[in-house]
Design a protein that fits this description.
Two copies of one chain form a homodimer.
Chain A lengths: L2 E6 L4 E6 L2 H4 L3 H12 L13 E5 L13 E6 L6 E6 L2 H8 L2 E7 L8 E6 L3 E5 L8 H12 L4 E4 L2 H4 L7 E4 L6 E4 L4 H7 L2 E7 L11 H17 L1 H9 L5 H7 L20 H11 L4 E4 L10 E5 L5 E4 L3 H7 L8 H14 L3 H13 L8 H13 L2 H7 L2 H7 L7 E2 L2 E2 L9 H9 L26 H18 L6 H6 L2 H11 L5 H22 L10 H5 L13 H5 L12
Parallel strand pairs in A: 1-6, 7-12
Antiparallel strand pairs in A: 1-2, 3-4, 3-6, 4-5, 7-8, 9-10, 9-12, 10-11, 13-14, 14-15, 16-17
């Protein structure tokens, strides 16, 4: 994995480069941060020619480790205006790694935005015009690509939202089984790819061989140890059974489940959309319904699912907690089939369901449609794909929706929608929303796991919690592993060094690995600071500091000064 | 003029305060900058409860000087996110000054936005509920207010756009004759007033006496000298005859007239919308058509007009250069009657015609309607008032319109539309757009007047030009005088000190007056820097650095570094 592919989308040229020794040590989120700072003017137009859209495999992406092969997608975000990395599962990343490609960098922008596809196999690397894909939904795009490139190809694409360069547009990756669609949702990176005129990327790894690792025996050993810890962890079992929706009941109990545009943290009909209900329906409905699926081949956690309607026909795959929260409780919609349909419509348009759900919530509060109006919400999402003015507003995300409707209760930090954890009753994650270079992003340091150890309603220790979680997320996103492997590293922090040694022969202490995370955060912060979106200028939305959140009736009250001190917090020794 | 009125719009209370000796020395733009920095959290939500909407009279607002009485309106801008001051003519400011009120500060925000009116007379100062004004157009609002408060009342209000808190919303002030509508257009301050639930402000100065000045005799002398210089200046004559549209032919000749979304600097049908054509039509059509009108009683420049249709019925008053450029050439509309109607629709909705014209230009390029489609443009502006999704997009200004339509050619700096002077062929004004705390605002330092002395296409000396003009604009906006009085101060810089001495007894050198301007700019910059919108993060739009502008075929090429050095440029001695 020492090759880079540079695609000049204006000239239509593709160049394969060998990366330098220094660059070889970058991967995933780390590589994206480094390239952004080195090559992208921080104040550039996110959908202009100076931004770059970067795909990058994590350092362990081409190994046999469970969850390895997640793909980092990055660029300057149309939502936050800062550095963005969005990690996604599915098969494309693994195939890209198998092809020995560490990164693909899309540069410049063409005048003509006729859809093009980047096709990469062992033998070639080229851009194809496929005008027939214009404005096609994600599922239809994947079908057409499969017809042309075969079932074994690794596929990723944007939907109509990305082609329209809407700020909430995501990048979709096909899952392991062909049924699942995984979205690199946060940050609007689909719009950046759309602005480069790239509709899809296809990886054909048929003739590619697995990467040669430094010490294959050790790799097998560490891989076994890693999987064993994961399989022994009760959280894994829970995720396997119920998927990410497993946490919905907990979030409802904690009072952090966004309900009716973040006006409550508890939803009366939470039971109807919970992980248990979903698992139960999957079992009873049968047909195409499935659970406990991997999103990447070889994953031992297998939290993905296929949700099906009453007749057993797939309605969406996978259905996940954040999407259920934002498209369900947040819209006062308690029918899981409606939620699934809304989620599917987001996937088809190729937009982040979190951003879309938050935007529709604001539109509901503004009186555009009523809370609970599932048909109206579906109509809005169809309008996103159609590109009507209202659809484009929603597709531009919650901040622009709020602006256009003159809303004062807009759940966003740094231009990005707050995900499914209200920071008023889980204060540690509020610190992450405000201080993370990623903005309001639950994957950047989610304090939910600490809710048992640190009082989620208290202000004590939250900054330290966020610091630690942000650091760990930055490391995992740079290795190309799923955030759900955390338990293994908590139990045995030496795994990091052993994995990297087996793969590259590097001798890294745990502190060296921590330094990778520090380096990521510092590099992203430097980019953001030059872009004018440093953490000095953002707080949680004003209403969250004033309006108590039922049922805990707490407000967000961690002082800005304290949050801004987060970068002076020293990482703990020996553990994340 | 030593009284301040503080209106707590949440509690519905009105308090009259006496200002301190230090505060007495603040006026207009200066006062707004000081209050923003002292009282408004720089990162607050522009339409939230922590922003303040400030009206302030300039230091010379209550004098007999020509043009005195212009009103500064300010707050944190929904468009730029920074400090904003917009100066406006009309009668309200003069009456406010006559009532001895230096400033009105609207604070906090009510939950219920039922329209309220602030009524101020010599005897009382109170908030009235007038729900019948909800969503009324500006002209209808003025009619209703006139019915209730009489013909002599000084009136200002917002239109439906302000009530909807759309980011391009303006504040309208009735002109001297009741026919004219003057808009404090730039920066979206109408949305800030709308967010406070204030629909209108009424000044009844019937029992108020003129302010006692320090030396009435000297004031009469300096006033006469001032008016004489103005009347002798050929620019005054030109403005009197042709109004601000006088410069359209010059701008077309220079190649800086925004045409078809800033894709050309020259418009083939410029003659049809020029100042000469307008003056001629006003003469030949007769009826309600008039020219050479003052916008404030006592003005000797009198650049205002009433434009009438072919049957002599008023279509818009006043019609001005920037609006003609943005709603005419920029939309490829060469029929002056259509342009007048578009301008009227902007006034009725209560939105900045510059922002609206730029937004429609972007929508035209995005294919929403065709360039030159006057009926379509009118329909869009009607939709602004109606609050349809598309209307709200346009009413949110050019930056949001660009975002929603995924546009890459968006003529804006710091979130605000570039006015009617393309910086590619008038580079000095580009420096102002980028470095002024006001963003892309022609009133903050317009280099057009230097086009004869400094090559507008060259890069040499442009930073110094902008520095000088920004400083002078800041002083004039703090005195409450019109920018068009510049010639008098260029000819006799001692006038400033003499005026302030006659009014207050202060002994100020010319350098002291310059320091007022410096203080304004420094205070605004400090606010902006804390708000995250310092000049470090903004440049002209990328396309303006790359796409040569016909017919001069120049690009904007003043380096960022050079522009950022503007604050190190020392103001010249003795002259502006």
């Amino acid at each position: 994995m020492n090759k880079w592919v540079r695609v000049n989308t204006c000239e239509g040229t593709v160049h394969v480069e060998r990366c330098s020794d220094q660059e070889l040590r970058w991967g995933g989120r780390n590589l994206i941060a480094k390239l952004l700072l080195r090559e992208v003017p921080p104040t550039c137009d996110p959908i202009g020619r100076y931004n770059k859209l970067i795909l990058s495999e994590g350092l362990l992406g081409d190994t046999i480790l469970a969850t390895a092969g997640r793909l980092s997608i990055g660029g300057k975000s149309p939502l936050t205006g800062g550095a963005k990395e969005s990690s996604v599962g599915g098969e494309a990343g693994r195939k890209m790694a198998r092809l020995g490609i560490k990164a693909i960098i899309f540069e410049d922008a063409p005048a003509d935005l006729t859809p093009r596809v980047l096709f990469i196999s062992k033998k070639e690397c080229r851009l194809l015009e496929m005008p027939e894909l214009a404005r096609l939904a994600v599922s239809e795009t994947f079908s057409r690509l499969q017809e042309r490139f075969g079932d074994e190809a690794g596929l990723m694409c944007i939907g109509p939202a990305g082609e329209m360069r809407l700020s909430a547009a995501a990048v979709a990756v096909q899952g392991e089984d062909g049924a699942q669609v995984r979205l690199a949702g946060r940050g609007g990176l689909g719009a950046v790819l759309g602005a480069k005129g790239i509709k899809a990327i296809v990886f054909d790894d048929q003739e590619a061989k697995p990467a040669e690792v430094y010490d294959a025996k050790k790799m097998r050993e560490v891989s076994r140890a890693f999987s064993r810890i994961l399989l022994e962890d009760p959280k894994t079992e829970n995720r396997h059974k119920f998927g990410t929706p497993a946490v919905l009941s907990l979030c409802n109990e904690l009072g952090i489940l966004p309900t009716r545009n973040f006006s409550s943290g508890r939803f009366e009909r939470a039971d109807d959309i919970s992980g248990e209900t979903i698992a139960n329906l999957i079992e009873t409905r049968g047909g195409e319904a499935r659970r406990g699926l991997p999103c990447i081949r070889g994953c031992v956690i297998r939290c993905a699912n296929v949700f099906a309607d009453a007749r057993g026909r797939k309605s969406v795959a996978s259905i996940q907690y954040e999407n259920i929260a934002l498209l369900g409780a947040n819209l006062n919609i308690g029918e899981i089939d409606e939620v699934a349909e809304l989620n599917h419509l987001c996937n088809e348009a190729g937009i982040d369901a979190i951003e879309a759900g938050a935007a529709i919530g604001v539109a509901m509060e503004a009186g555009v449609l009523a809370f609970g109006d599932a048909e109206g919400a579906k109509d809005l999402l169809r309008q996103v794909s159609q590109g009507t003015p209202l659809g484009r507003i929603i597709g531009s995300g919650v901040t622009i929706t709020g602006k256009v409707f003159g809303a004062r209760r807009v759940p966003a930090v740094k231009g990005q929608a707050i995900p499914a954890y209200d920071p008023r009753a889980l204060k540690g994650i509020g610190v992450t929303y405000v201080t993370s270079p990623m903005g309001a992003d639950h994957t950047a340091g989610n304090a939910l796991e600490t809710a048992g150890a640190v009082d989620p309603l208290g202000t004590q220790g939250q900054v330290e919690v966020s610091r630690r979680l942000q650091l760990r997320a930055a490391v995992l996103d740079s290795l190309g592993l799923c955030l759900f492997v955390r338990p293994a590293f908590v139990k045995d922090p030496s795994l990091f060094g052993r994995m990297l040694h087996a793969r590259y022969g590097w001798d890294l202490t745990f502190e060296d690995v921590q330094r990778i995370g520090l380096d990521v955060l510092e590099t992203e912060r430097e980019f953001n600071s030059r872009a004018g979106v440093s953490e000095d200028f953002f707080d949680v939305p004003e209403f969250m500091r004033e309006e108590p959140l039922p049922p805990r009736n707490s407000v967000y009250d961690i002082p800005m000064k304290e949050m801004q001190g987060i970068w002076n917090v020293k990482p703990p020794k020996g553990v994340f």
